[in-house]
Design brief:
Shape: globular
Order of helices and strands: EEEEE
Largest sheet: 5 strands, mixed
Number of helices: 0
Helix content: under 10%
Number of strands: 5
Structural class: mainly beta
Strand content: 35-45%
Distance between the termini: 45 Å
């Protein structure tokens, strides 16, 4: 049996901005520290110091890896 919710569910934002991540673009380019903007579940932009849309939820990803479109199916990717 499920307990009743005490607060309304928070829906995902329309836009999400991941800041200061180590980005592995999967294009053969060396990893870089930058931002990734996701709109409606799709990558909208990748780069440095991207402008945040008004509806964006911003997450500081300092020290974290982001691999858009790249799936690590083996734990020893050696990056």
């Amino acid at each position: 049996m499920n307990a009743p919710l005490s607060a309304p569910l928070k829906l995902s934002p329309v836009s999400r901005l991941l800041r200061n991540a180590t980005v592995f673009a999967g294009s053969g380019r060396a990893p870089f520290t930058g931002d990734l903007l996701i709109r409606e579940g799709r990558i909208a932009a990748m780069g440095s110091a991207l402008a945040a849309p008004d509806d964006a939820e911003i997450t500081d990803c300092s020290g974290l890896w982001v691999m858009p479109g790249l799936l690590d199916i083996h734990p020893r990717l050696d990056l």
